[in-house]
Design a protein that fits this description.
Membrane-bound Lytic Murein Transglycosylase D, Chain A, 479 residues, alpha+beta, single chain, 31 strands, 42% strand, eight-stranded antiparallel sheet, 9 helices
Length: 479
Amino acid sequence: MNKGVNQPPRKSATLRLLLKCMVFLCAFMMISSSVAAADTKLETVFHVYMDDQYVGTVSNKSVIENAVEKLINEQQDNYKDFNLQLGNKLTYISEQVFRSNADNNAVVQKVEELATVKAAATAVVVDGKAIAYVKDSKDAEQVINELKLQYVSKEDLTFVNMLEASKEKLPEIKKDEARVLNVAIEEPLLVKEEKTDPENVLSYEDAVKLLQKGTLEEKKHVVEKGEALEIIAEKYDLTLKQLKELNEGLTEDSVLQIGQELNTVVTKPLLHVVVEREKYQEETIPFEREVVEDNSMPKGETKIKQEGKNGKTAFVYKIKEINGRQTNKEVIKETVMENPVKEITIKGTKEIPSRGSGSFAWPTNGGYVSSGVGQRWGAHHKGIDIARPSNYTIKAADNGVVVEAGWNNGGYGNKIVIDHQNGYRTVYAHLSSIGVSVGQRVEKGSAIGVMGSTGNSTGTHLHFEVYQNGQLRNPLSFF
């Protein structure tokens, strides 16, 4: 019965233990809830890619942007006139995480290693390839303009630009006028904004020189008569050493052969300026010459039947030039202003025998013998003098060959001697002019000169002598 009395206190202890457990459990649940709440707070990070290459994670984009700005500023002092930019492509991908794994310093270091600083520039692009960089589009336009001005004047270029803008039809070109119709770059050309190394950006003056000078191109030289190595080298702006290096086995002692090919190099412009011109030009049309044969005229003699006269034609040409060298010239209009007149010459074909007939014709057109053969003024007069003819033409006394024709210092003045190829010779002196030459065949009665008073003469007359087998004969015995 006593045991039953002590049971209630045991129940109280159990209750107290139960209460303690409940308090502990509540406290644990509260602590767990706080920890869980703390773990669910998210943080944003940025994964950085440079030119599609992953470089790391940063806590904020400004970390990279500040680093890039610093890199650009460090080089800006060297290129004050340029707009410098990052040459790489930067990409950020954001992510929210419970725990950040960002490593700002490591990523900045990696970006500094990979980054390239470029200048914003304008590229002159030909066939898809940038061949020159300038600061901006204004400089690019000036480059193209300056290239054109190497081959046309400012006035011509202004005229072409106005013509293109107005689309008006040009008036007909005038006499002695020349004008430029078009100036263009031959290659397909594009001006494009690009980024490039600042060192590649040229002033417009240097860009013009580059595009004109172009690149070196191999070229064969064919040796011509009289050419030496030094001459060939100078022609291609090479030293003798450079020319020998381009041609294996070539030495200063090498003997060049006509037609031999040598390796050389020449500059090839990167751009070609095409200029189209229009030009009015009057040109002479040479007259034609026609020769008409006449068998009644002695062979060797000619006379002009109709004087020739040049004509005149006006041409309008269209001319194409590439880098100052004419490549095409075509006639687009032709106007005959004056027709040419043909020259007609009569040419004798009659054969003249070189041997005389043995009978002589009177050598002048009439006249009288003013002095005969014999003593005169204390000397022997070898021939006869014939004066006062109806005209002053002197004629060959017979067929023969002229053996002397010219001035004689023995007092005869202008003198002609004809060998009649039959033992006879005749002499004609004191002529004012001579119409035949040595070696010429003459026909009996044909004109050989004009009567005069040259040499030792007292007036206009013909002094006429006859020789037979070298012996002087009296001319009057033959008439």
